[in-house]
Each structure stands twice: as structure tokens, then as C-alpha cells.
Amino acid sequence: MLNMKNYALITGATSGIGYELAKLFAKDQYNLVLVARDQRKLDQTQQEFSSYGIDVIVISKDLFNRDEAFALYNEVKSRGIQIDVLVNDAGQGVYGLFQDTEIDRELKIIDLNITSLVILTKCFLQNMLANQQGKILNLASIASKTPGPWQSVYHATKAFVLSFTEAIREELKDTEITITALLPGVTDTDFFSKAGMQSSKAIQDPDAKADPADVAKDGYEALMSGKDKVVSGLKNKLQTGMGNIIPNSILAHQLNEQQKPVSEE
């Protein structure tokens, strides 16, 4: 029998920022619905967070496939679970010049970073409106603020996420529902290995990578206070602030130099 605590659904919940967000929800006694592709990691995470005395449900879905996003919503609905907080954390990128990268990989990234996020936001938002309460956290990125040579598709998807989130927030201003965008910078997760980005100049300094726990804390606090968005980290705040006054053509050139492989020094 389900207890009466609120439920938070988190995608990409077994590692990185998603995992750290799940931990914060668990500590605050939210029940969890954790979503990822790897069932083994989900089972491990379920066992860990169950120690907080909460209900932890794990669901394996591949959100690179938009049909799996609909299936996730239908499975949650069929279990009679009301989602009070939705965290769209799952996302990936691919590194390389657009002319050289694989189109199938990029289309899957668009489906993961955009299409599945839109589906889950639409479905669970409609339930939240019916229940007159709810919160949504969407993982954008400081990449959403600049063109991204060597990661052109990833940056574009995050620009979509930020714009999408800000538009819906305005639509919801007279309701009890809030939607928040979290904009991290370079963070110490497995994002870069999955993107094939180990050779990029931008990630060679390990000290420049933020702790995912710190990023999650910034996002969690912004979500709970109902903020529209939060840029995590002082350096990233300064960078995005400067980006607001520098032309995109110059930003694109600067990022191109930063993102090039080390071999092109």
C-alpha cells in the first residue's frame, strides 16, 4: 500500500546530478520514482534510498525512444501514483564537428533531450493542474545561452529546454504549479565520456568541474522556492552574464577555441 508522502519522479536518476537530486528528495522524505536505462544500477539505487524509510519505485525506460516516454507515464498512471515533482534530468551530447558526427546519434539526442522531456512535461503537468499543485525541474545548461561549436546539437537542445521552460512558466503564473530551469556548467559526471569528449580542451582541468552534489543543491533549492531558473556556480553566473552583452558570433568563436581537441593546440 502506498504511503501518503509526496512522490518525485526523476529521470537519469542513477548517476551525476540526477542521482544527487534523488538523494536530496530522499533526505526530505519524498517517495521516489527513479527512471534510467540500466536495471542493475536502478536496483542498486533503489536499495540505497530505501534506507531513508521511503517508497522507492524504479522503472527502466530508454528515453532516447519517445514511445518509452509515453510508456513511462502510462506505467506510473496505471500504478495509481500521483507525481508531485517531476525532474527531467536525463540528457546526453555528442562531441565533434557537425559535418563528421553521426546523424542517427544526433536525432536520438534530440529525442532524449527535447522530445521525451516535452512528453513527460505535458503528461505530468496536466495531472498537476488537475490536482492544483506540483513542481517541475528541467535540466538546461549554460550551454543554452551560447552557440556551441563541437557540440552544436547539444547546445541547441538545451536552448530549447530553457526557452520551453520559461514560456510554460509564464503560462502557469496564475496557478499553483511552478517550473524551474537548472543551468549547470562543466560538472564532474559521466556526460563527457558518453559524449566522446575526453579530448576537448574545455575539460582538461579536473578542478574546473563542479561537484554534482553542489549543482543538485542549487537546483533543489531553486525548485523548492519556486524560482524561474538558477545558474549553478559563480564562474558560470559571470560567464552567462557576459554572454548577455557579447554578440553570438564572438561567443561562438570563443567556444570554438575552447572546445577544440587538445591535439589541435
From TrEMBL:
Keywords for this protein: Oxidoreductase
GO molecular function, one term: oxidoreductase activity
Pfam families xrefs: adh_short
Entry-linked Gene3D superfamilies: NAD(P)-binding Rossmann-like Domain
Top-level taxon of origin: Bacteria
GO cellular component: membrane
Coiled coil: none
SUPFAM superfamilies: NAD(P)-binding Rossmann-fold domains (SSF51735)
Family from the record: Belongs to the short-chain dehydrogenases/reductases (SDR) family.
PANTHER family: DEHYDROGENASE/REDUCTASE SDR FAMILY MEMBER 7B, SHORT-CHAIN DEHYDROGENASE-RELATED
Name of this chain's protein: SDR family oxidoreductase
